Amino acid sequence: MPEGVVKASDVQAECYQCHPGPQTKCLRGTMAAAGLSCQDCHGSMKDLANESREPWVDLPQCGSCHGPQYAEEPGKLFRQSKGHGGLYCEACHGSPHAILPSTEERDNIQVIRLQGYADTLRECSVCHGDAVPDGPGPHGMSNPNPVTPTPPPAATATPAPTPTPQPTMTPGTETLQLWLEPEGRVVSKGNVFFLDMKVAPGKVAGYEIVLRFDPTILQAEKAELGDWLASTGRTTAPLGPSIDNATGVIRFGAYSFGSGQPPEGTSWLARFTFRAISNGRAQVGFETKKLTDASGRLYPNVLARGAFITVQVLEGDLNDDCIVDISDIMMVVSAWGMQAGQPGWNPALDLDGSGVIDINDIMIVVNHWGETCGSALSTSGQAQSLGASESIEPLDGVQTAMMRFSPLNGVAPLSEGTYEVQLNVEQVQDLASFESAVTYDAKQLQLESVTFGDWLASSGRQVIHLGPEIDNVAGRVALGAISLGASPGVNGDGVLATLRFRVLVPGDVTLALAKAKITNSQGSEIPVAVEAGHVTITPGRAIYLPIIH
């Protein structure tokens, strides 16, 4: 590895040859965002190869750069050290390679929910509520709003103190930075997402903004006041919001008043929630930006940066729930054979634009089966999880079908080498499709094959199988099937598939069902409950054979 700063290409070519990276993205914390490289903390390859270095022990120390006030506990690494209130350092700062705020949005979700913005967990009220004690906090930080006891009344009258004049803050030529965060992101059609409005470094007491966006790509859902203006004890109130999704305009503002001064530093002023409605690239930008100090005077110099949103269509997601599943497949299957101009024609299902819903449209959706937006997954149609002894309850007066294994509690002698179990559906009417994932302990079982049953085809419908997608490392298989045709689906009880496992180690194994979903021939979901199966792998009896000379 070359000496000096590690470029992204060097990391990809060198560090990631041995260390995880392309998926785990080790360079994603605030230090990486500031331009630091792997070598800035870990040293060069020559340093790492030093014979006196003890791997996994001689690692970077926070105190080396930030000083003793920020050092780890003696003899411990960052991930092992504790600080304020016995909390691990990671509780407030994040993990070593994702020190907050992270460049990966998912790393910041928890801290945003706790304190409203992506940064080190620094708001005392998150843990202490309104009763924040006085005294130094972590790393010697002082609490801006300590709880101080109320002094007892004086025994004698005390002259009223002379009022202290409030300091006058003059904006002058100071330049404020106003921006939307994140400044660029990619979302999928149907996703709900938010943008945070932040300002630095002045003492802002009030603001008024107008945002513009492309209403053909985005729709604004709400604007919310951030809690930063009130963090020094000032009373705050919002102005608006006024949202016009026809022209793509949001008008919003807030003001604060009270004896305390406005907060300093990077302020979280507002959060705007949008929904992506069509694909394309949209800018959310500032048309009007007015920021005032505590005396009401405007800051004359405000540099504003908007955000760019790229909306991608998740192909095959016909119901816009951010997952391509059996519901989407059956939507197009139920319209199979329809042509443009016929009653009930839905052009959104004609994915190849041929003017007829045919097998090409079906296979377009099938080929994207299981793909998701990565967030905002739908919770509709989730299967109930039932224990082996629990009863099946109807959902809202509708008969609930049952998906479970047969045998439900099986025995697999290790001497036999394999174990077969059927996946069944019971008490169902007009079943036309199904999908589910089966999970198991990969250390005890390995899935060798999946054989689909012929029950779905018994009503005369044509069947297309989905999967199986077998992962014997994670211990998971995804499988499903769809059927199409003019006749209704099947009724009653039947076998969906037979799973054949190779048994490895004696013990008890649970076969769990996840993401189970079934539909009728019209593509509507049928309520379904699931029941986990259990397998007891026994050592089996030894067989002694005679020795033949």
Could you describe the 3D structure shown?
- With 549 residues, the protein is mostly beta strands.
- Helices cover 11% and strands 35% of the residues.
- It is built from ten helices and 24 strands.
- Strands 14, 16, 18, 19, 21, 22 and 24 form a seven-stranded mixed β-sheet that branches. Strands 2-11-9-4-7-6 form a six-stranded mixed β-sheet, with no helix packed on it.
- β18 and β19 form a beta hairpin.
- The longest helix has 11 residues, at 105-115.
- The protein is globular, with a radius of gyration of 31 Å.
- The chain starts with 7 loop residues before the first helix and ends in an 11-residue tail after the last strand.
- Mean pLDDT is 78; it is low at 1-9, 144-172 and 374-398.
* Helix-strand category: mainly beta
Indicate the percent of residues in helices: 10-25%
Shape: globular
Content of β-strand? 25-35%
Mind describing the biggest β-sheet? 7 strands, mixed
